Amino acid sequence: MQTPTPGRQPGLRARTAAWRSRTVAGAAANAAGHDFRSHLRLGRKGLAIGVDIGGTKVAAGVVDAEGRILSQAKRSTPGNDPRAVEQVIVELVEELGAGHRIWSVGIGAAGWMDLDGATVLFSPHLAWRNEPLRENLQRLLRRPVLLTNDADAAAWAEWRFGAGQGQSRLVCITLGTGIGGAMVMDGRLERGRFGVAGEFGHQIIMPGGHRCECGNRGCWEQYASGNALGREARELAAANSPVAQELLRAVDGDVGRITGVTVTELAEAGDPTSRELIEDVGEWLGLGLANLAAALDPGKFVIGGGLCDAGELLVAPARKAFSRNLTGRGFRPAAEIALAALGPNAGLIGAADLSRVSSRMHT
């Protein structure tokens, strides 16, 4: 089929109802529920736009069938007004589409999506509560739209084009403010029965431990995330520990300014206390990965997110803790643990690729 010109599809009047009724939301459902391996050939031609919606910025890019970004654009996230966010997405798609022949649009956003990929059930950063986002955007963009969770989109990108290529069972972990996750199993995104699988950060790893924003105590992300790293460093500095002097100097004595980024930068510069703090977080990371391996038995864990700027300072102790806590250790193959390859662009690359493959399956 010929790729449509920007802003228009061939036979638009005749086809609009068809692709709506076939639900390119079926896009997300099929991405989650069917084996894509036999369909990947359908996505070899045509360009798609991927949009990654974050709490502070909306990033978009034109992505080809090899996962390459041909052009990009960004906007600040306009508060938490759903209509304003939709308008920003439209502006980005129109801007990028003006220079390319675009087939479809993929949207990756933090939050829970229904299994049809039509509705954002809940988003922690935006005022989306049972928001029919796909229908709204298809009406505004006049193109097929796929809606998916941002972690799912990133995992798909790593499986297709990044550190997870060739894996039949891949688990991706994103370490940032909290811990997100996603799974690609036998060539499909595994989203669970209700579409909310992958909330690995909320496995309880320390009963009665630190209170989590989810309401429980002792969640994994309270021990192995960027927030956890910053909290531990602030507590050490607030106690005026003699080993925390580099941390205090870095923020001119203002303990409240110490973040995970502060610790990572000092660790990379050689500060032994900051390295010790990252090693502690790495050990918690490895323990949680061992729990996931016992339940899911993946061939590989791919670790991404902002905290991974620490690189091997984080991953090396995670591997040691993983090996030490893995059930059946010494008598079973162990999953590989690797850093993600696509960086902060993984979400928009994956969203674009999912939308291209899904829309061609349903055309």
Description:
- The protein has helices at residues 12-21, 26-33, 82-97, 133-141, 150-161, 226-238, 245-250, 260-268, 272-296, 312-325, 346-361; strands at 47-53, 57-63, 69-76, 102-109, 112-113, 120-122, 129-131, 145-149, 169-175, 179-185, 188-189, 300-304, 336-339.
- Helix 2 crosses helix 11 and helix 8 (260-268) packs across helix 9.
- 38% of the residues lie in helices and 19% in strands.
**Helicity level:** 25-40%
Strand content: 15-25%
Derived from helix and strand composition plus strand pairing, the structural class reads alpha/beta
Regions with little confidence, pLDDT below 50 for 5+ residues: 1-44
The largest pleated sheet is described as: 5 strands, mixed
SSE string, helices as H and strands as E: HHEEEHEEEEHEHEEEHHHHEHEH
- Number of beta strands: 13
Overall 3D geometry?
globular
Ends distance: 9 Å
Radius of gyration: 21 Å
In which order are the strands of the major sheet placed? 3-2-1-4-8
Mean pLDDT: 86
Separate helix tally: 11
SSE arrangement:
Elements: H1 12-21, H2 26-33, E1 47-53, E2 57-63, E3 69-76, H3 82-97, E4 102-109, E5 112-113, E6 120-122, E7 129-131, H4 133-141, E8 145-149, H5 150-161, E9 169-175, E10 179-185, E11 188-189, H6 226-238, H7 245-250, H8 260-268, H9 272-296, E12 300-304, H10 312-325, E13 336-339, H11 346-361
Parallel strand pairs: 1-4, 4-8, 9-12, 12-13
Antiparallel strand pairs: 1-2, 2-3, 5-6, 6-7, 9-10, 10-11
Helix pairs in contact: 2-11, 3-4, 5-11, 6-8, 6-9, 8-9, 9-10
